[in-house]
Design a protein that fits this description.
Number of helices: 7
Strand order of the largest sheet: 5-4-1-6-8-7-9
Distance between the termini: 36 Å
Number of domains: 1
Oligomer: single chain
Strand content: 15-25%
CATH superfamily: Spore Coat Polysaccharide Biosynthesis Protein SpsA, Chain A
Length: 234
């Protein structure tokens, strides 16, 4: 079974909107979250979908999604955690309690605010997890990365050729995820689940990302996303 976990539990403070988190804002005529979901709904390999949202927005999300066609796919809206790692952990527990994790099951965890994910990315993640157990999405950085421990002075400039920018999806063997979580890893203290995965000694392959697989964080990002959407629709 292949599950998609749409990570939408953030409150989006950098969008400077007090009325709702950014994943529910309109992109064109539909919420950002719905654009993202549609890419997983149409993918024939994805069988079940979890939408992980803030507790206080759970009923709103359920009402909103009832208006859209999931093409017969089973989905559930669940409350997320304090960070991405905890939301992934909550997803694993929910899947195991509801459907029972089996060998070969896969979780594709993707940011709700990356609505331009492609079918190529989803399919390559599935193939990578089947072969290696886990995968992350990476892009070569065009800019040099600077390291500053105090935020005021430069400490280090790492070698550019070994640096990549992380995107999502992050995808995992659910059996291995369950095994890792059984060790009591401190999810609330670690926002990056892949760091916990690597510390546990598991392999994680890289899947080439897309420049337009952007994360909509602030008002400028939303303007860029609107322009991308218009270009795609013309």
């Amino acid at each position: 079974m292949i599950y998609a976990g749409i990570l939408a539990a953030g409150l989006g403070v950098r969008m400077h909107r007090q009325d709702m988190p950014k994943q529910f804002l309109l992109l064109g005529e539909k919420p950002i979250l719905v654009h993202t979901l549609e890419q997983f709904i149409v993918n024939t390999n994805v069988e079940k979908i979890l939408i992980i949202v803030p507790e206080e927005w759970k009923l709103y999300t359920e009402d909103m999604l009832s208006q859209y066609d999931f093409m017969g796919k089973e989905y559930a809206v669940i409350s997320g955690g304090v960070n991405k790692a905890e939301s992934i952990g909550i997803s694993v527990y929910y899947i195991d309690e509801t459907w029972q994790i089996q060998d070969g099951d896969i979780l594709i965890a993707h940011d709700a605010i990356r609505p331009f994910i492609t079918q190529r990315l989803i399919d390559e993640h599935i193939a990578a997890v089947k072969k290696h157990g886990a995968a992350n999405t990476a892009m070569v950085t065009n800019d040099a990365i600077l390291v500053s421990k105090n935020g005021a002075s430069l400490d280090e400039i790492p070698s550019h050729e070994h640096l990549y920018a992380e995107q999502t999806p992050q995808s995992y063997s659910l059996a291995k995820l369950k095994e890792l979580l059984s060790t009591g890893v401190p999810l609330h203290k670690e926002s990056e689940f892949p760091r916990l995965w690597l510390k546990a000694g598991y392999e994680m392959r890289l899947v080439q990302g897309e420049y337009f697989n952007m994360k909509i964080i602030n008002p400028y990002d939303l303007e860029v996303a609107e322009a991308l959407l218009k270009e795609r629709n013309t």
